[in-house]
Write a structure and sequence with these properties.
Layout lengths: L4 H21 L10 E6 L1 H18 L3 H8 L5 E8 L25 H20 L3 E2 L3 H9 L6 E10 L17
Antiparallel strand pairs: 1-2, 2-4, 3-4
Helix pairs in contact: 1-4, 2-3, 2-5
């Protein structure tokens, strides 16, 4: 049997994505409370995410959304990692308020933010171990949040995954808007 890497790459990267999702899930959590949501998107959903980034650039004028909209089309799949907003009751003050009860509406619990960051780091460390191309993208995560793919999540980040001779998610040129 001859298995050409090019012919098996997509399925392999989906298997890798599952490992990255497991790494994110098993990452340490504040107080041991797991409020993360993790999913993977492919094909049509990647195109929809790209289209949403283009719409968002028209609203906010941030040109890097255009670059990222084009860039994620190089991914075989994209992992989404988000956290629901749930105060951990530690009254730690890291959010800027003295107590969890005093926290203003819309201000994220700092422990939730740290948890999603540790999960992202764990997933990316696994990606490095498996030698696949990735990058954490705030922009694509924000677009996924707008699409409400991770129900109830207030902070969502995206990790596009690829296996190519050069990581397509680094050394990127700004994409100019079509005139």
């Amino acid at each position: 049997m001859l298995i050409n890497e090019r012919n098996s790459r997509h399925q392999h990267l989906l298997d890798v994505a599952r490992q990255l999702m497991t790494a994110a899930r098993t990452a340490p959590k504040g107080r041991g409370v797991d409020i993360l949501e993790i999913a993977v998107i492919t094909e049509e959903e990647i195109q929809k995410l790209s289209d949403t980034l283009i719409e968002m650039e028209k609203e906010n004028g941030m040109k890097f959304f255009l670059r990222d909209a084009d860039n994620i089309l190089n991914a075989e799949c994209i992992i989404l990692i988000g956290t629901r907003d749930e105060a951990q009751g530690l009254n730690c003050g890291h959010c800027g308020f003295a107590t969890c009860a005093a926290r203003s509406e819309g201000v994220p619990c700092a422990i939730n933010s740290v948890d999603v960051g540790i999960a992202l780091g764990s997933a990316c460390a696994m990606a490095a171990d498996l030698r696949v191309d990735t990058r954490v993208m705030f922009s694509a995560g924000l677009a996924a949040q707008r699409l409400n793919w991770l129900k109830g999540c207030k902070q969502v980040y995206a990790i596009p995954v690829s296996a190519s001779s050069k990581n397509p998610f680094f050394d990127r040129k700004p994409k100019e808007e079509n005139k």
